[in-house]
Amino acid sequence: MWSAGRLLFLCVANSARSQMAEGLARMIFGDRAHVQSAGSRPTQVNPYAVEVMRELGVDLSSQTSKSVETIDPATVDTVITLCGEEVCPVFYGTQRRLHWPIPDPASTEPGLARDEMLRRFRAARDEIRAKLEELAGDASWSR
To answer: What is the mean pLDDT of the chain?
Structure first.
């Protein structure tokens, strides 16, 4: 059986993009992959990420934000960074690296409407999902 390998998704806070990628990868790859996510400045899983993933039947409520420093390089084959305009975390090792620059859907703009936040999170989720589905269709990337 083809294996998706051992994936690590990275962004800064490990609160939105990398958490959604972790949940989506588990949904798409199932037991064909070992999936992790982390960040350089972990905070907490964003409630909007939990909400938009629930729309797809993916439960992020038990996931927690983790520091990239807690990830054992021996448990990772491929590192996928999801940082858009910010500086991505560094992960040392010889793993295959992919970069998917996806803008951070979280915002600290005061007065940003709930509908706009949900739109931003859905856009990021859908872009990540499309990239993962493309990856799933390309077995040549797996070791």
So the answer is: 90
Task: Identify the CA nearest to 58 among candidates 20, 4, 108.
Answer: 20
Task: Write down the pTM of the prediction.
Answer: 0.91
Segment holding 41, helix H or strand E: none
Give the residues across from 33 on adjacent strands: 5
Q: How far apart, in whole angstroms, are the C-alpha atoms of residue 69 and residue 56?
A: 30
Q: Are 18 and 63 in contact (CB under 8 A)?
A: no
Query: Would you please indicate which residues are annotated as catalytic (active-site) residues?
Result: 11, 83, 88
The residues facing 37 across adjacent strands are: 9
